[in-house]
Give the backbone structure.
Amino acid sequence: MKVDYSTAIPNNVNLSDDKRLQRALERWLPDYADWWMEVGPAGFQQSDIYLRTAISVERGGWAHFDYVKMPDYRWGIFMTPEEEGRTISHGDNIGDPVWQDVPGEYRKELKRLIVTQGDTEPASVEQQSLLGRTAPSLYDMRNLFQVNVEEGRHLWAMVFLLHGYFGRDGREEAHDLLTRRSAHEDHPRILDTFNEPVTNWLDFFCFAMFTDRDGKYQLAALAESAFDPLRRTCQFMLTEEAHHLFVGETGLARTIKRTAQLMKEAPGGDVRKLAGVPLDIVQKYFNYWFSSCLDLFGGEDSSNAANYFSSALKGRFNETNRKKHPNASGLDEGYRYSILDERGRELDNEIPMRRAMNAILRDDYMADCTRALDKWNKILEQEGAEQRLTLPSKRFNRNLGVYAGQCYTPDGTKRITEDEFKRRSEQEWFPTKADKSYLDSIMTPISEPGKFANWISPPARGINGQPVEFEYVKIH
Ligand SMILES: [Fe+2]
Ligand SMILES: [Fe+2]
């Protein structure tokens, strides 16, 4: 499964055996390069960045690290190896051989899944394009650019599937992936969260923690697909994605750690006096990003999700290794949830398990986020701080699904009026204008190797065995 780097498009999918496909992708390449220069990372395209490039899809030793200028990055197409005799892991056709081509009856849905996933990849690059200018260190700047080039590669991964398996309309969709723009008035990105502004590094760390993590769960669901090329593609994307999640989770951990330290040093514990990030601002960013990301899973009660599961277009997280399968009818088990009515009374509801696939995936995601939250709170404890951070309830600030149209407090225990929700969201629950301009004021760039902005702790170790003070970016 070595990657062929001798061609314009590095790949391990024998692209040279399919001249038509190769030519189609080679025609897409310059459009991609234009897109990257237009809305990719602003200002550092000539810098030498210590980046990793995939050279194989095997576990361990799959990546090569070296200085690269981002426009010269070798974006390519990689899949994990085909598994002989692989069968469908779930749904109505469990045990049948997986599909090497797109079945006509599922063409529309599969294309939609691929386009929706594909759209998030360039969107995040666009959202993050200005962040290099305020990076708190060269280490962090390098991590941002690593995430950016890999999101670009993930776009390549989806475009390969569109070109390779969906003919002419696949090519049109691939074209449209380069024409939509994050937050554009007329042609925005498909999902709301990918049109939200990412203006500072707290946004970025929350994005890489919460939004990329949604991506991990979506990819994991697609990595159970009966459509084998999609499964194999997403499997390798997950390998790369792990680093993005690391950047988000440890970025937040380092911020929180530094805040807790500054709280001890600052007069009256006010970290603003020492250019730190106050915990109440961190909490507001959690409220905002986490709740926005919960909507990315789709409605809790969903017939689409039921169809995707029964036809095995998507699975649950870690489906292949799950012991229990909802039976063919899916009626013997239910997924339970409750909402509060306007008088605060608990109303219990049950969805047939198959219709609750989005909710099940979201629950796995929430458990993962809670694990990270516990770590951050542990840091606060170790540093002697009394405050604790929380994640808002799944009922809070939902715009779709079973909690949409109801207004709850962040802990989800109380129904409130729309007016109160609006007022308190603006004033106390979400980042205010003043919070954002305060963050802008402390996030001044640091470009000396080994130096870090005062609001963030250095990482425990560097990248690829290099020291923390390594020159991860040579700025030109
Ligand atoms: Fe991605
Ligand atoms: Fe990512």
